[in-house]
Amino acid sequence: MSFIRPAKPSRIRVGQTGEDLAFKLLEKKGYKILERNYKSPLGEIDIIAREGKTLVFVEVKTRLTSDFGTAKGAVGPRKQRKVSMVALDYLKRHSLLEHPARFDVVAIDLDHEQENIELFRNAFDLAY
Predict the structure, then answer these.
(1) Which of 95, 79, 41, 83 has the alpha carbon at shortest distance from 58?
(2) Does residue 9 come out as left (phi exceeding 0), alpha (psi in the -120 to 50 range) or beta?
(3) Of 39, 59, 94, 113, which one has the fewest beta carbons inside 10 Å?
(4) What is the DSSP letter of 24?
(5) CA-based angle 83:85:87, to the nearest 5?
(6) Structural domains of the chain, count
(7) Domain assignment present for 38
(8) pTM for the whole thing?
(9) Which residues, 6+ apart, have CB-to-CB distance to 50 below 8 Å?
(10) Torsion sign, CA atoms 73, 69, 29, 128
């Protein structure tokens, strides 16, 4: 008798699931979503939104297990710098340097089929 292990979801599918959950959460909280998966030569930002007059650059981190830490701890200094550089590029390209902006993180842990979704407003400073 052979045991067939269920296929592990792909990283892309897990990421897309997380972004969909984050999108719903942000809309529920009153954010107006402007862009998803904004790409520039410098990298990508998962969600760009507006809350009131503030532009919000949102990094979404999703984890299926806590084997390598929680989603909350996955946005370290290196990732913050990368997202900051892409955000600055976005602000320059759209002539929005004078607008207030901030960085939020949506951390999603899907361990054991349970959804734990946390929104961290103003999660880090512009670090370019």
Answers:
(1) 83
(2) beta
(3) 113
(4) H
(5) 70
(6) 1
(7) yes
(8) 0.83
(9) 31, 32, 34, 56
(10) positive
Q: pLDDT tens track of the chain, all 128 residues?
A: 444 444 455 666 776 888 999 999 999 999 999 999 999 999 999 999 999 999 999 999 988 766 566 666 678 888 899 999 999 999 999 999 999 999 999 999 887 667 889 999 999 875 44
Which value, to the nearest 10 degrees, does the dihedral of the CA atoms of residues 31, 76, 60, 102 take? 10
Backbone CA torsion sign across 117, 18, 51, 93 = positive
Q: Which domain holds residue 18?
A: 11-122
Report yes or no on 51 lying in a domain. Answer: yes
Distance CA 31, CA 48 (A): 10
In a domain, 19, yes or no: yes
Q: CA 58, CA 35: separation in Å to the nearest integer?
A: 10
* Alpha-carbon gap, residue 92 to 84, rounded angstroms: 12
Residue 1 in any domain: the answer is no
Helix ranges (DSSP H) in 29-57: none
Give the pair of three-digit tokens for residue 116.
């734990």
